[in-house]
From TrEMBL:
Residues 1-59 form the HTH lysR-type domain. The keyword DNA-binding applies. The lineage of its organism: Bacteria, Bacillati, Actinomycetota, Actinomycetes, Kitasatosporales. This is LysR family transcriptional regulator. Pfam families: HTH_1. PANTHER family: HTH-TYPE TRANSCRIPTIONAL REGULATOR, HTH-TYPE TRANSCRIPTIONAL REGULATOR GLTR.
Amino acid sequence: MDLLGACRAFVSVSDHHGFTDGAAAAGVSQPVASRRVAALEELLGARLFERTVRRAVLTPFGREMLPHARRLVEDADGLLHEAAAAHRRPWRLAVPDICTTSGLARLIADARGLGIALEPRTEPPARRAELLLAGRVRAALLAVPAAEAVWQVPLGLAAAGDPGEGYLHVETLRLGRTGRGPARKVWLQPEDDVPHVRDPLARLRDAVGLRPAQLARAKDLTTAAAEVHAAPDLLLCSMVQARALGLHWRPMGEFTPLRGYVLRTAAHTTPPPALTRLGVRLGRCLGADTAAEGAERPDLVPAPPHEGVGA
């Protein structure tokens, strides 16, 4: 028996003092309303109405049961209202500021086609993790080591002038004993100022004999790119970023640094199933051309933040 439907018919018939008008108000036919009320009476073990030709009058038992039935109907309507509001609530997603406007626009459009109201918010790595833990976003693309990542973005070195074919070696930035003038630098943008990218580069800097200041951190990508355009410095970045910045990109000769990303949701937040279908578009936003391989993997959202959000 449909208890909610029966209670809804019972309340509506009572409010309209008859089965015809009450059924119409409940959105069902008069015979359906009659059957539902009869089924409720059988379940409760007593008559709810004294039926006449034109009216339905509550029995003493019906008057006693009416407030309970009304509360059940109101609670159910409240639940449905909250569920509808939750579906309309935007999915605030913290993303790296390396994502382009066009990439994010396409991501939002694809999400809308899947019934997800996505609201991206660009932030640096540590801030994305903080917002997720604080519950101020519903999901975040977190920077993680390549071994933990769903998406990987290879990094290389970019210069304002064409460095020629082949690789760019960090050791070529080393100044000789008679070297004069400012030392060339490798600039890190905030997105790459994370241990799994920064620390291997620092070890390489020390191993090939560069000065500490030759691995420099910029406050933002614009500043880093300006330094490279203004001087013979190099920028650690992806190939996609280099193209967008008008720089010449080459892979590093010593090793290939990797940005790694994983999508995590806030505690007590259940991601919509369709979210996993955005894997390809998320990868393209990040500059991971091979993102299609992880497009619909079940571990696209592998763990809640309290199990380790990465940094």
